[in-house]
């Protein structure tokens, strides 16, 4: 991975904040693609340390600059850990903006992939995921960086 991409992929602060800063005059928005309750993918269950037959809340979004998707993200949290957190009510507000305001937020190590996201038909250059913990809440956030972002920021393709 080139150092340009490493800076994005290995960052552990808010990706929302980084995209807004990098976007300059472009307008940042979150497009809600899908939100549902269902079973996790097997590898998501493993990453969360739960049984694959436990219900999870799933949220899939595109993070856009001037309406063009730069990142797609899928976040998954076991229903049992969501109690009291009205995350489903976020709509098109960024999950990251909420998350990084929470005191005592713990982020587990990042995992990186060059596989395509399975939840949406989109090319991706790099993907990454990590589990956030906040009180009872366990939230697996998976983010995939799209070629449009590389084009707009003049980043190399890998
Ligand atoms: C975790 C963050 O939240 C971002 C916003 C998301 C959303 O609104 O669903 C999902 C994943 C992230 O790309 C972040 O900003 O770092």
TrEMBL record:
Positions with a binding annotation for substrate = 59, 95, 143
Q: Which GO terms describe its cellular component?
A: cytosol
As one GO molecular function, the record gives: chorismate lyase activity
Task: From the UniProt record, list the reaction(s) this protein catalyses.
Answer: chorismate = 4-hydroxybenzoate + pyruvate
Q: Which cellular compartments is it found in?
A: Cytoplasm
What InterPro entries would the database entry show?
Chorismate--pyruvate_lyase (IPR007440), Chorismate_lyase_/UTRA_dom_sf (IPR028978)
Q: What highest taxon heads this organism's lineage?
A: Bacteria
Task: Reply yes or no: does the keyword Lyase apply.
Answer: yes
Q: Which keywords appear in this protein's UniProt record, sorted alphabetically?
A: Cytoplasm, Lyase, Pyruvate, Ubiquinone biosynthesis
EC number, UniProt record: 4.1.3.40
- GO biological-process terms attached to the record: pyruvate biosynthetic process; ubiquinone biosynthetic process
Q: Principal localization?
A: cytoplasm
Q: Which family does it belong to?
A: Belongs to the UbiC family.
Biological role stated in the UniProt entry: Removes the pyruvyl group from chorismate, with concomitant aromatization of the ring, to provide 4-hydroxybenzoate (4HB) for the ubiquinone pathway.
What name goes with this protein?
Probable chorismate pyruvate-lyase
Please name the source species: Vreelandella subglaciescola
Gene behind this chain?
ubiC
């Amino acid at each position: 991975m080139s150092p340009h991409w490493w800076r994005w992929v290995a960052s552990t602060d808010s990706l929302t904040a980084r995209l807004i800063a990098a976007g300059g005059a472009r307008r940042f928005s979150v497009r809600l693609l899908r939100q549902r309750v269902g079973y996790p993918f097997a590898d998501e269950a493993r990453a969360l340390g739960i049984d694959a037959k436990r219900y999870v809340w799933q949220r899939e979004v595109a993070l856009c600059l001037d309406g063009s998707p730069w990142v797609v993200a899928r976040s998954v949290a076991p229903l049992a850990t969501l109690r009291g957190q009205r995350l489903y009510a976020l709509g098109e507000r960024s999950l990251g903006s909420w998350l990084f305001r929470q005191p005592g937020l713990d982020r587990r190590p990042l995992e990186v992939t060059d596989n395509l996201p399975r939840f949406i038909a989109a090319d991706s250059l790099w993907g990454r995921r990590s589990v956030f913990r906040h009180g009872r809440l366990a939230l697996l956030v998976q983010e995939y960086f799209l070629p449009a972002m590389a084009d707009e920021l003049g980043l190399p393709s890998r």
